[in-house]
Amino acid sequence: MVNVTYLDPSHDVAYAADADSEATIYNLGDMAFMLICTALVWLMIPGVGLMYSGLLRRKNALSMLHLSLAGIAVGSFQWFFWGYSLAFSDGASAFIGDVKYFGLKGVLEAPSIGSSRIPALLFALYQCMFACITVVLAIGGFAERGRIGPVLLFMFCWLTIVYCPIACWTWNAAGWSFVLGGLDYAGGSPVHISSGTASLAVALYLGKRRGYGTQSLAYKPHNTFFVVLGTAFLWVGWFGFNGGSGLGANLRAVMAMVVTNLAASVGGLTWMFMDWRLERKWSAIGFCSGAVCGLVGITPASGYVGAPASVAIGFVTAAVCNLSTRLKFLLRIDDALDVFATHGIGGAVGCLLTALFAQASVAGLDGTEIPGGWIDHHYIQLAYQLADCTAAMAYSFAVTTILCWMFHFIPFLRLKTTEEEEIVGIDDAFLGEFTHDYIAVDPELRMHRVDSKVFVDGNGEYANKLSPSASGTGNEKAGGSRIDP
């Protein structure tokens, strides 16, 4: 039976484990605020899909939209199954939780591990959105060459053995980074560093796309509108992502939203000006990329820094991420969507800058006490932050690589497409659907018409002859087409 009562006249919820226990009051304003923030974070996930889709070639565009929504489903089931328990069980070790809350058993009206002002079920729902968006960010490494079915199973496994441990050691009161004193307000390490590094590991495992290093991959994003719309979804959703991470409607949440908006604005302008310097063009995609980098950088710091610091964080993160896009060429890793440069490097920069700009006075806006960062003369904080982000990056890269190779040796779970599937495109090969109501012929296909139907004229019936380019090759396709080797 649910052990709650409603107080008059406010109708706040009072929870007591039994008749002799002191009641815990759940504030309805905080609960409403967290429900809104949960919906905003959900909106970010199709936003990621839209941005990824717009940046790809047309023949692969729907695959990322599909995987973003499927990622919500897979992530929600994993979180229900055991993800929440592995990350936030109150019986956790310094590294990972137990299965006390398997199937969300016992997760209902009791106070949450994050705040006594909201129930555990609401906290679990909010954190579920974090898990979902993290795995959708990570699958950017599969762009244009990942098989849909195995990728869905990969999501479930990755959340279990990569995301949940990092979330546990960062946010669970028993986690080693939390105990050490690491500061991560909204997910620099569990969300951005883990997903960005995982994307790099996936891209390294899959190898280069067909045509890498040639003009065939020097394409422009197929739909800039998708990129702009996806960025808009991300920007507005980030208010719930960072603003809700304090788990209450208070002054600290207001500050988190202020610095989130400011860092995104400065980041967008920084990247846009850096691109203008090179090409003398005011790039919309450049602005969107910079805005996302600013949002990534401010994520771990948002509940600890003031507005002036957010300007510095937005500028530095966008500038470093812009320059980091060259890393894939130096390392010769085909990270098609620059997920590592944006989220892996951006998350690490934000994590380290938190050590410089964190203020005890900002954290204290909701009563939280921290020693602060360098601005408060707490210089050891940089070592804590460095340990946290280095551990997350190394762990995510190593375990993701192992997971990819485990899938590799199970034939029906192999993650990489065949060359033929890559040429045709993920949408046609695995979905049979497209983002637009027409089919464009990709130059890579080099299709030639082969007439295969019987024509009738006044002199009788005869079969059409093959076009000269197709004659004698022996690789004609039913339906009247052939593909050059």
Automatic annotation (TrEMBL):
- Give the UniProt subcellular location, in the record's own words: Cell membrane; Membrane
Q: How does it sit in the membrane?
A: Multi-pass membrane protein
Q: Which residues form the Ammonium transporter AmtB-like domain?
A: 32-434
Q: Which UniProt keywords apply?
A: Ammonia transport, Membrane, Transmembrane, Transmembrane helix, Transport
Q: Which Gene3D superfamilies match?
A: Ammonium transporter AmtB like domains
Give one GO term, molecular function aspect: ammonium channel activity
Q: Does the keyword Disulfide bond apply?
A: no
Q: What is its main location?
A: membrane
Q: Which InterPro entries match?
A: Ammonium/urea_transptr, Ammonium_transpt, Ammonium_transpt_CS, NH4_transpt_AmtB-like_dom
Q: Which Pfam families match?
A: Ammonium_transp
Q: Where is this region: Disordered?
A: 466-485
In its UniProt entry, what is this protein called? Ammonium transporter
Q: Which organism is it from?
A: Naganishia liquefaciens
Taxonomy of the source species: Eukaryota, Fungi, Dikarya, Basidiomycota, Agaricomycotina
